[in-house]
Amino acid sequence: MTAEITVREGGPADAPAVAALHADSRRTAYAGLVPAEALGDGPPAQRLEIWELRLTADYGGPEHTPVLLLAEEPGGAPVGFAYLVPEPDGRVLLDNLHVRPGRTGGGIGTRLLRAALDRAAPAALRLEVLRDNHRAVAFYEREGGVRTAERTAVFPGGHEVTEYEYSWPRPAHRS
Asked: Global pTM?
């Protein structure tokens, strides 16, 4: 199933597809974990504006510029994305890893995570995941992530949930 999926670096033209996929994935992945009103990034136009800004802002140089990785089917239909943000401490934050609802469990997330590890190297990669998102926690642990912190995340409206930080301190090439 994933043999036909390609991963490429995205850009400003991908903002509409990424904004829509992000909203759909959040609603599905976080259902029951976070109150519905805390999941919105505002109206669709505002979500699009956020992604357009992320993908066009001047971050001052390549070493500071976030990277969008898109997983696509033949014909260019996006089925997932990862968004990597360089951090001041030299690590890279995997700020988003989302797969289109209905397409999870088929290897797309694995392909994106491995592409993110390769892209981040030699820096350590880290991410934050909701503690009660058991499927995602199990996925990151299967993929070699090490739990390095636990804290409270605050969502819009003041909703607090526990999250874990996972890290890949020594990214290695995986086939």
From this structure: 0.89
